[in-house]
Write a structure and sequence with these properties.
528 residues, alpha+beta, Rossmann fold, Alpha-Beta Plaits, 3 domains, eight-stranded antiparallel sheet, 14 helices, binds guanosine-5',3'-tetraphosphate
Length: 528
């Protein structure tokens, strides 16, 4: 393999969590370990403030800042780590789902007090679609959380994810004394605000050693012995291949804010997390080790500030070597393109780069040539599969307020939906244009951008739909009949695929039951 050395030193991943579980704090600790930032608090400023939800321009401003940290690259023990940031704000969930198509593994943060939350479930569903390897970090052990056995059971059950504890906590809340590393057989004693080099770790090969009683007291020592015996009996050794196949998730306990248990997590991550792997395309399996370059666009960020109206397409390199100023083949528009200012994202600053390797993410200035899922190659025509669109959750009719600007409106809507801001459906029979988004905020963004960038005025009328399902069937006549009978609820997506817009779960289930010849899908693959 020509680029074996570069490929094998890269780990590209994302930290995901329900808002407030501690994703930002953990990200920051990772960057501190990697030497990419010097002080705590540096990442915080990039976080979309939870309370600024009503002012989308403010959120966009903050999102603008966060573009610089969309990908944070740092080195740790000779490894090059690409940490892809995902927006914390739920209205940008679709951005997060797409980012997950560009990573090789994830770290899932769970709040020990709240356990599994709504967003945790949805994120895991997306991970499961690609069998993404997951490591779980149970955070906030310094707070009185749920019983740890109950918590593990809850996670396993709710996320259908078999777990494997790597460390085990000694109490929680004010009685939290630390964690025992079941793998290294060492005891890590809890102190608040631990600095990387100051961790108080004691090797305890044999848990019957009296040192354990001295360190944590007799009562907790005997509890730990009991717990450890139980865990070893149930779980045994971690099977790394099962983790890589997405079948089991190693679990760590800690406290991100106190930098406690984070190093154990990072060290194990480095040891077991996958390096970039081969990927399926519409034509063939693409080996990561191939000499020729290929990559795909998984996210497009447009700046709303009229003074800096730039657009950045985020490209994940999948094989070969990406080089600055070299011509590449844009498969969808069948055009050769070169990039004179591609940049990488070294924490907090954007740098022009000369080249990039599999696992890396490159930022490309875009003047409207890209849409999500686009592929660049050295000439071959194919697309990467497994880049889905998800059903929106809010649907509104797009109403043109200025008939003189119909063309501009159409162009604007087409471009914005290419960027992935929203999805566009056209009702069958009528010509009603329906915009579907994951969050209310997107409607404001669309209205604002259509006016500012395309001079088109529009308004939205609420529609009573709750989910879009893509329809397929081996029986074309049945599908056609269904679409005709359900005209009010039928539409086609931007690529002409038929879609059923359900008013409620009850209606949806009824239709699924009544139409066994039709398959209802909650996601649609951009390229199959
Ligand atoms: P997020 O990105 O997942 O949304 O979470 P974030 O890291 O911002 O953490 C959410 C809140 O939880 C923050 O407090 C953070 O300080 C706190 N936190 C993170 N890790 C721990 C931990 O191990 N223990 C405890 N007790 N708290 C933790 P905040 O008050 O919302 O924000 P801030 O004022 O501290 O910035």
């Amino acid at each position: 393999m020509k680029y074996e050395k570069e490929i094998n030193r890269r780990k590209t991943f994302a930290i995901i969590s329900h808002p407030d579980a501690g994703k930002t704090t953990l990200t920051e600790k990772f960057l501190l370990f990697g030497g990419a930032i010097q002080t705590a608090g540096a990442v915080k400023s990039n976080k979309i403030k939870k309370h600024a939800t009503s002012d989308f321009m403010e959120i966009e401003r903050q999102r603008g800042i966060s573009v610089a940290t969309s990908v944070m690259t740092f080195e740790y023990h000779d490894h090059l780590i690409n940490l892809l940031d995902t927006p914390g704000h739920k209205d940008f969930a679709e951005d997060t789902y797409r980012t997950l198509t560009a990573v090789d593994s994830v770290v899932l943060v769970i709040d020990s007090v709240n356990g599994v939350e709504a967003q945790t479930r949805r994120l895991m569903e997306v991970c499961r679609m690609r069998d993404t390897p997951v490591i779980v970090f149970i955070n906030k052990m310094d707070r009185d959380g749920k019983n740890r056995f109950d918590l593990l059971e809850e996670i396993e059950k709710e996320l259908s994810l078999p777990l494997h504890p790597m460390t085990w906590p000694i109490n929680s809340g004010k009685d939290f004394k630390g964690v025992y590393n079941l793998h290294d057989k060492s005891l890590l004693l809890f102190t608040a605000n631990t600095k990387a080099e100051e961790e108080d770790s004691v090797v305890i090969e044999d848990l019957d050693d009296k040192v354990l009683d001295e360190k944590v007291g007799e009562k907790d020592a005997s509890q730990l012995r009991e717990d450890a015996e139980l865990i070893e009996g149930v779980y045994g050794e971690l099977n790394v291949q099962n983790y890589l196949d997405g079948k089991v998730a190693p679990v760590f306990f800690g406290s991100a804010i106190n930098n406690f248990g984070v190093k154990e997590l990072l060290d194990t991550f480095i040891r077991i997390a996958p390096v970039p792997r081969s990927r399926e395309t519409t034509k063939r399996m693409l080996s990561v080790g191939e000499d020729k370059f290929s990559g795909f666009v998984f996210k497009i960020h447009a700046n709303l500030d009229p003074k800096h109206r730039d657009r950045i397409a985020f490209l994940r390199v999948c094989s070969g070597r990406f080089e600055r100023n070299k011509y590449y083949h844009h498969v969808r528009i069948d055009k050769e393109m070169r990039f004179s200012n591609p940049y990488s994202f070294l924490a907090r600053s954007k740098d022009i780069i000369e080249d990039a390797y599999p696992g890396d993410v490159v930022g490309l200035f875009d003047t409207g040539n890209f849409k999500i899922g686009d592929t660049l190659t050295e000439g071959e025509d194919f697309y990467f599969t497994g880049i889905p669109s998800f059903s929106p959750e809010i649907f509104k009719e797009l109403v043109n307020k200025d008939p003189m600007k119909t063309k501009q409106l159409e162009k604007g809507v087409s471009q914005l939906t290419d960027e992935g801001v929203a999805q566009l459906f056209t009702q069958f029979g009528g010509n009603k244009k329906i915009i579907g988004c994951v969050g209310e905020l997107q409607f404001e963004v669309i209205q604002y951008r259509l006016l500012q960038e395309y001079g088109a005025a529009c308004e939205f009328r609420a529609l009573p739909f709750y989910k879009a399902c893509w329809l397929t069937s081996n029986n074309a006549a049945k599908l056609e009949d269904f679409l005709r009978f359900k005209q009010q609820n039928s539409a086609e997506d931007k690529d002409g695929h038929p879609v059923y817009l359900a008013q409620s779960e009850w209606f949806l289930n009824t239709e699924i039951q009544n139409n066994p010849d039709i398959q209802f899908h909650f996601t649609s693959e951009i390229h199959k």
